[in-house]
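Holo prediction — 5-O-phosphono-beta-D-ribofuranose.
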Amino acid sequence: MKKVGIVMGSDSDLPILRKAMDMLDTLGVLYETHIYSAHRTPVEARDFALNARANGFGCIIAAAGMAAHLAGAIAANTTLPVIGIPCKGGMMDGLDALLATVQMPSGIPVATVAVNGGVNAALLAAQIIAVSEPELAEKLDAKRASDAATVLKKDAALQAELNK
Ligand code: RP5
């Protein structure tokens, strides 16, 4: 199985990435995690992206806040799919990071999830890996079914309470 690369701009982003790692653990997806910054460690971030395909990664999650160039900088140096997580924080509380991550120029895509969207980033990464992993695809189908059953159970409880 190809690994998911997880890169964050600072250890202050770690709580968001922990949610992603927990979801990948639940699904049995392999990953490797690093703190590399587009601004503070540009050489390491670039080298990670340049070597990611050869190092067995199938996609990369990149999370950063404020002037969030990390996902774009990673995407500039690999043709692996890159999933960007804009992180909350700073004067604009994540809006700056959202725009910096999502508004990529034509030619260098970043699949941007919601601000602090660690869980969806992990699910999208798992869906990418599952293109060539039928067992993982089955786990994702089972999770969807289980999530739907949870909603319908709550609906049934609400009906019982309100619609007598
Ligand atoms: C970004 O600046 C990081 O991704 C983080 O979200 C934000 C603040 O970083 P720290 O000052 O907490 O290290 O580069």
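READOUT: The domain at 3-132 is CATH 3.40.50.1970 (Rossmann fold).
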